[in-house]
Amino acid sequence: MDELIFFINRVLISGTVLGSIYALGAIGITLIFGILRFAHFAHGDMMTMGAFIAFVLATALAAMGIILPLPMAFVVLPVAMVLTAILALGIDKGFYAPLRARGAKPVTLLIASIGVTLMIQGLIRLIFGSGTKSIYVAGESKDIFRFDMSWAGGSRPINITEPQLIMFVLTALIVVALHLFLTRSRLGKAMRAMADNADLAQVSGINTALVVRVTWVIAGSLACVAGTMLALDVALMPDLAFNIVLPIFAAAIVGGLGHAYGAIVGGFLIAFAETLAVFNWTAVLRPLNAVLPEGMALPANLALVPTEYKLTVAFVILVITLLVRPTGIFKGAST
Questions:
Q1: How far apart are CA 40 and CA 71, in angstroms?
Q2: Going from the N-terminus, what domains does the chain have, and what CATH number goes with each?
Q3: Which has the closest alpha carbon to 142: 13, 229, 56?
Q4: pLDDT digits (tens, 9 = 90+) for 16-58
Q5: Which whole-number Å values give the CA distances from 165 to 219, 271, 284, in the listed order?
Q6: Is residue 134 packed enough to be buried (19+ CB in 10 Å), middle (13-18) or exposed (0-12)?
Q7: Angle between the 245-255 and 14-36 helix axes, to the nearest 10 degrees?
Q8: Would you give the DSSP letter of residue 292?
Q9: What is the enclosing helix (H) or strand (E) of 16?
Q10: What's the confidence (pLDDT) of residue 1?
Q11: What are the pLDDT digits (tens) for 242-259?
Q12: Which of 6, 174, 234, 323 is the most exposed place for a label (fewest CB within 10 A)?
């Protein structure tokens, strides 16, 4: 039983946490690609930017003596989402919209997004420094819930932190809300129509400029949620989400570029593939030592991939997807 509990703690919970972050980030990337037809490489730094906005707001409230039972970064998240969405609109208006107006090709927009990445990182380092910070303010701590499993014969508990629990609930609510928006609202249907065929959508009378603005609002808001939840789970730093840009893009491509549901599935698929690849299977298979021939034993570490090479899992899955099924699981735009 202890082996199963260890697997739940290290794989199921960790994979769900990582999958939630990847999914929220991939939704933004896939919506931007579906509507604007370019790969937005600055999306990871938009996540970091959203986390720092939440940090500033949480610090301000704590300085005013406002302390609540929940993490303050989570309490201020709605305001941080609005501010990040406004900044995302500003980035589009200042950098991408002028290029689109000149008929720039997608590769030009992609290169511009790399410039935006460097700009955001530079501003964050200039304002907040390059060190690691805690997003918990005013003496807050990360509460850990331990579920006793002695009733099932286990000697260790199932551990889950308060931010992880919040993340699970929040991700589920966002997925449901996004589904209802895309399938029930007029604007959501317009976004899906524009993602399928932008020229036909414009001829049909759809306000494409409004669709573009709404796309950036959604992408910026979800980036803020993903970045803040990631900072609550680990720590706040200028390159918080920079190192997970590849897995997020892999999730969007594996699920199907331009397909929001595909981004969600791809996010969890990539996350669990990474988690399973670095998991030490000896911890689960240790009972097999009793049936192995004398002189034989399982190695101390039976992980498929060393932890430091975790990102290569997403890269391998990405390459295989591009070779075997370029349109992804849900048959999105061909990559």
A1: 30
A2: 2-135+159-324 (1.10.3470)
A3: 229
A4: 999 999 999 999 999 999 888 888 999 999 999 999 999 999 9
A5: 23, 17, 25
A6: middle
A7: 70
A8: S
A9: helix 14-36
A10: 65
A11: 888 889 999 999 988 878
A12: 323
